[in-house]
Structure formats: structure tokens, C-alpha cells
Design goal:
The structure holds two protein chains of two kinds. By secondary structure, chain A is mainly α. Chain A contains 14 helices and five strands. Among the domains of chain A are: about 210 residues, no CATH class; about 40 residues. Classes of the chains: A mainly alpha, B mainly alpha.
């Protein structure tokens, strides 16, 4: 009996994951057909990579919010780290490694690893906290990272790298030197290596890793921490280790999204809208709308909320207003005790009905 | 003398943070939730004073009254329609709702008043004080802010400790269930807390905009978050803690702007928060609460 139920559970997770992969595959084929027949407007073409970036952001944030159950408001900070680290690498190596097939994968790995490293450093103090405190501290970290990027100057000349927090003149460079990171002006001249195919492969990798983490022993440990921290601790689950694990994986993929972002634009700067609080909230909207803990939902929500605002340009003033209402009503609908009771009653009614029907048959 | 000048401007900024932090700390102590929208109530207060006094040209006291009444009503409405239905839900759900409310207020203000900054006419008519033969100037805004902060703290401490609704607040913050059994109107008390917090936010908004006279829909967001840092710094739930935390944070910000780097001042303030939370999560005046299983 037990074996049977476990088997059907496994089948269920394999089935839902299969649907997710199938959905991605179909989306990919559709996009390829449209590209091959050249029947896509430039607007939609320009949205392909951003859509992939937001999918990666939403899926990785869902790992922290949905699976670990802690609200991170600094997710864009990790994206920022990944973007700057990889862009820095690409600009430095532009003349050394000319083949983008070597340079871009290296940039992706560097962006992800540096972001994961930041996730680790940030995670150690942050994950000692819970709930509201954790949220506000991740927000603080995101802002600190954004602030740092705005005052960081890095130059390269024959003597090696020069760092400064004051300005380009303070770098003290030789005449042959070139300033790579220009404080608030950011990094210019990043090669535009992000293509839809690469971005799509990264989406598949992200979804694959996150889904596998969720359905693994580690994933169950992480979810047990979410559901009851004290009970999880009492059965010997190392809370800090698993929390840190989820946090670092989440940061790694946010970093990869940052790599895609920085290699898709000409000038990389850190502002509130791309790497600040606003971006973190926007990704949170994707996660909430898609369903907290639901990976497939995050993907769908990210795609819809990337494409829809561009198609409804004339309503762009109302976009953030609608987002805020989405957040409030989704939460009131899904979490308020009154609504939860109401839905339980409905589903009970449904179950009783089906039982009766079975009895009659 | 230069140091003293920065010190006084820090003290004045810190007093504003302290008034905002009082709202945070009371709501957090009693409703056990982080009211993310508190900072944006400040912004609404600023716009109300701006509309009534600067645009319509009515006297300042009418503008202030309108702001206090309007913000109080807004605070109570937010509590009633966004937070009360979620009482008993997970803290994640409440926090996300609060972020939603914060965004809603910002974007409503953006639609109504536009993104262009409004230049705010100061509500303070006290002349500046010049000391030490002109080497040291204390603006009227600074004087009024510091005085307002002290008065508010005294009144609030007396209210919470001496009056019946104040003691009800204590009871609800300690044990909501038991308070209800003792006949305390829990919903009413929480609504009252939101009302007081929002009224304070309106005052803080007017003072903030008088000291830094550019008003945008995002004016309240950063001071709001910093005031939360101040509340945590002082020990969340504690009224004198919010006061001390606010003033310390104002001093840290003002002095690091003056002596370290003006771009990094925000980062330094946030670093303080992280250090406080890691070293002493209960803050300066916070009580350690052991968790019941």
C-alpha cells in the first residue's frame, strides 16, 4: 500500500515536470518556426532574451520564496553582481579571446560563480534571521551592492588593474590605460553575446536544476524547514546548511540572468529600475502571480508579464499600479484565513459529491 | 565648529527618523507585522500638505490638520482592507501584501501628481538660530523637528503607560489571545495603533519635506526603510528604542555623508542594520523573547 502510494507520488512529480519541459520545448519550437519564416516583429524579437532573463530570475527566486519560504528582496543584487562580474570579464578578454563560443560560456560561469559567492557571503549572516528581518536585510544588501557599483572605478593598464572609489583621475593610470568600470556610468562596450538560443539553454538548465533540487532529498529537507523549522531541526536537519544551499543556488542563477542581461545591452549601469528594489519587486510579482512554489507558474507569469506590457504600451502608466493590485489581491485570495476556509469548503463539497457519485455507480 | 554643524543636521534628520520609527515600532510590536507602506504614508502626508498649503494657498495649520486627518484615515483603511483579512496568515503573505500596498500608494501618487518633483514650501516659520558669531547656524526646521520629536515621545510614552487604550496596546502586544479573553477589543486596538502611527507619519512627512524640499512619489520609500532600520537598531517594539535608534542613525548618516562619502552614506546605514541584526538582533532596548514550541 505504502509502496504504491509512493510510486504514484513519484509518477505525479515526473508527470508535472514533464509538462513543464514539454511546454518549454513547444515554446522553443514555435519561436524557431517564427524566426525561420521571419514573421516576428522586431518588438517581439527584442523581448525574447529579456523573457528568458525574467524566467531565470523568477524560477531562481521561487527557490528562495516558494521552496525555502523566506522572502528575499535583494534578488536583483545578485543579478547585478553577475552582470558586472561577467561584463568586466568580457570587456577585458574581448581582444584576448576573440571567439564568442569560448568567451561567453566563460563569462556565464564567472557571473554565476561570483554571484553564488556573494550569495554565500551574504547568506551566512542573513540566514540566521527569519521572516521580516531576513527580508529587510536582503533588501539592504541589494541596495549596498547597487551603491557600491555606482562608486566603483576600475582601470586596466600595463601595470595591471587599478581600483578606486573616487573617480577616474584617482586611478593613477599609465597613458596606455583604459578605464573599464566608470562608477555611475557603468561598463560600456560589453560584446552583445546573448542570443535567444543561449538564453533558452540557460532557462532549461535553470529549470532542470531547480526542479531536481525540489524533488531531491535536499529539496525535501529545505521544504521541511519551510513547513516547520523546529520540527525539522529536531529530526536532525542542518537548517543553516540547507538554507544556505537554497540561497546560494538561487543567487547563482540570478547571476546567470545578470550575465544575459549585461551581454544584451550596450551600456551597463546600476539603477533602481534594473538592479535595485524595483527589479526585486517585479520578479517577486512574477513569482506571486505564478503561484508561490510553483515553478511552471513562474515561467508562465514571467513570459506573460514581459510580453503583455510591451504590447499594451499605451497603458504603461498603469502597469506598476496593476502589479501592486495583483500582489495585494493574490495574497488576500490565497492566504487570508477566510478565503482558505471558503476554498476548503468548496473542495470538500466537490469531494463529497464525487464520493456520492461513485457510490451510486 | 564644522563637526557641530553636521552633528546638528544629523540630530535633526535623526529626529525625523525617530518619529517615523515610532510608527513602525508600535505597529510591529502590536500587529507583529512589518508595515512596508508606512514610508509611503509619509509621502502621502507630504502631498496633502503640499496640495492644501502650497497649491491652494491655505494657512499651514489647515494643511497640517488635513495631512494628519488624511493619513490617519488612510492608515486605518489600509489596516482594515489589506491587513486585517490576513490576520493569522503566514508572515510571508502579510509582508508581500504590505509591499503591494506600498507600491499602490507610490503609483497612485505618480498618476495623480506626476513624476516631476514638487518644490515644497516649508511649514516652519521659526527663524534660524545663529550661534558663535555666525559660525554655527541652526535652521528653524531643525529646531522644530527636534522639539517635535521630544514632545511626541513624551506624549506617546505617557499615553501608552497611563491610559486605558495604551495599556490595551501593551496587552495585545504581549498576548493577543489572552487580551481578547480579558475583554480587550483587539481589532480596535490594532486599528488605533495604525491610526497613531499614520498620524505621526503625516507629521514626519511635513517635517521631512520642509527640511528637504523636493517631493516625489518616492520621497517616503528610503526614509521609511531607514526608519525601520532605526526601529530595529533601538529594539523593535520599544518607544525609547525607536527614539535613540532614529537619532543614532541620523547622526551616522549625516557624519558619514560629511566625512566618508556622500554616495556611500546609504550603504553605511544599511551596513549598520546588518551588523546590529547579526550581533544583537533584539536591538539596544529589545527584550529577548524565547520561542515556545
Amino acid at each position: 500500500m505504502k509502496q504504491g502510494s509512493r510510486l504514484s507520488n513519484m509518477k505525479k512529480s515526473t508527470k508535472t515536470n514533464g509538462i513543464t519541459y514539454l511546454m518549454l520545448l513547444v515554446a522553443f519550437i514555435v519561436v524557431q518556426i517564427f524566426t525561420a519564416t521571419d514573421s516576428m516583429t522586431n518588438l517581439i524579437k527584442g523581448l525574447l532574451v529579456p523573457a528568458c532573463i525574467y524566467i531565470i530570475m523568477a524560477v531562481s527566486l521561487n527557490l528562495t520564496v516558494g521552496i525555502l519560504g523566506e522572502l528575499s528582496l535583494g534578488h536583483a543584487g545578485f543579478m547585478c553582481v553577475g552582470a558586472f562580474a561577467s561584463s568586466f570579464f568580457s570587456v577585458c578578454m574581448r581582444d584576448v579571446i576573440t571567439s564568442e563560443w569560448v568567451r561567453f560560456p566563460l563569462a556565464i560561469i564567472i557571473g554565476g560563480v561570483v554571484a553564488a559567492l556573494f550569495g554565500f557571503i551574504v547568506g551566512i549572516p542573513v540566514l540566521r534571521l527569519r521572516g521580516d528581518y531576513l527580508a529587510i536585510v536582503t533588501l539592504a544588501f541589494g541596495e549596498i551592492i547597487k551603491n557600491l557599483m555606482n562608486v566603483l572605478y576600475v582601470g586596466l593598464d600595463s601595470n595591471g588593474f587599478h581600483f578606486s572609489m573616487k573617480g577616474t583621475t584617482d586611478l593613477g593610470m599609465e597613458a596606455d590605460g583604459k578605464v573599464i568600470v566608470k562608477g555611475a556610468l557603468g561598463i560600456t562596450g560589453t560584446p552583445r553575446d546573448s542570443t535567444f538560443v543561449v538564453a533558452f539553454i540557460l532557462v532549461v538548465i535553470t529549470v532542470f536544476v531547480v526542479l531536481n533540487v525540489v524533488n531531491s532529498r535536499q529539496g525535501r529537507a529545505i521544504m521541511s524547514i519551510r513547513d516547520n523549522r523546529i520540527a525539522a531541526e529536531s529530526i536532525g536537519i542542518n537548517i543553516t546548511k540547507y538554507k544556505l544551499m537554497a540561497f546560494v543556488v538561487s543567487a547563482f542563477f540570478a547571476g546567470i540572468a545578470g550575465v544575459l542581461y549585461s551581454h544584451n545591452i550596450a551600456t551597463l549601469t546600476a539603477t533602481t529600475n534594473n538592479f535595485g528594489y524595483n527589479m526585486s519587486i517585479m520578479v517577486l510579482v512574477y513569482v506571486v502571480l505564478g503561484g508561490i512554489g510553483n515553478i511552471r507558474g513562474s515561467i508562465i507569469a514571467a513570459v506573460i508579464l514581459t510580453v503583455l506590457p510591451e504590447l499594451l504600451r499605451e497603458f504603461s502608466d498603469y502597469r506598476m499600479l496593476v502589479y501592486s493590485l495583483v500582489l495585494i489581491f493574490m495574497m488576500l485570495f490565497s492566504s487570508s484565513p477566510a478565503m482558505v476556509n471558503f476554498r476548503e469548503k468548496l473542495s470538500l463539497k466537490g469531494k463529497n459529491k464525487s464520493k456520492k457519485e461513485k457510490g451510486v455507480a | 565648529m564644522e563637526f557641530l554643524q553636521f552633528f546638528i543636521s544629523g540630530l535633526s534628520l535623526g529626529s525625523i527618523y525617530a518619529i517615523i520609527a515610532l510608527g513602525y515600532t508600535m505597529v510591529y510590536g502590536i500587529a507583529k507585522m512589518l508595515n512596508f507602506a508606512h514610508g509611503d504614508v509619509i509621502m502621502v502626508g507630504g502631498y496633502l500638505v503640499f496640495t492644501v498649503s502650497t497649491s491652494m494657498g491655505l494657512p499651514v495649520w489647515i494643511g497640517m490638520t488635513a495631512a494628519v486627518v488624511g493619513c490617519t484615515a488612510l492608515g486605518v483603511l489600509i489596516e482594515r482592507f489589506a491587513y486585517r483579512p490576513l490576520r493569522g496568515a503566514t508572515s510571508l503573505a502579510v509582508l508581500i501584501t504590505a509591499i503591494g500596498v506600498s507600491y499602490l500608494l507610490q503609483n497612485l501618487a505618480l498618476l495623480i501628481f506626476g513624476a516631476a518633483p514638487k518644490s515644497f514650501t516649508s511649514v516652519v516659520s521659526v527663524p534660524a538660530l545663529t550661534l558663535a558669531g555666525g559660525a554655527l547656524t541652526i535652521t528653524g526646521e531643525s529646531l522644530v523637528t527636534i522639539a517635535a520629536c521630544i514632545v511626541i515621545m513624551i506624549v506617546l510614552t505617557l499615553f501608552v503607560n497611563k491610559t486605558k487604550p495604551g495599556r490595551a496596546m501593551h496587552a495585545v502586544s504581549e498576548d493577543r489571545g489572552a487580551a481578547q479573553l480579558m475583554g480587550v477589543n483587539v481589532n480596535g486596538t490594532i486599528a488605533l495603533t495604525f491610526a497613531i502611527g499614520s498620524a505621526l507619519a503625516a507629521i514626519a512627512g511635513a517635517l521631512l519635506c520642509s527640511a528637504y524640499p523636493t517631493l516625489t512619489p518616492y520621497t517616503g520609500a528610503m526614509p521609511g526603510i531607514k526608519a525601520f532600520v532605526a526601529a530595529v537598531f533601538g529594539g523593535i517594539g520599544s518607544i525609547p528604542g525607536a527614539m535613540i535608534g532614529g537619532i543614532l542613525l541620523g547622526l551616522i548618516e549625516s557624519l558619514s555623508k560629511a566625512y566618508i562619502s556622500s554616495e556611500m552614506a546609504d550603504a553605511i546605514v544599511f551596513l549598520v542594520l546588518i551588523i546590529v541584526l547579526v550581533v544583537k538582533p533584539t536591538g539596544i532596548f529589545g527584550k529577548k523573547i524565547s520561542e515556545k514550541v
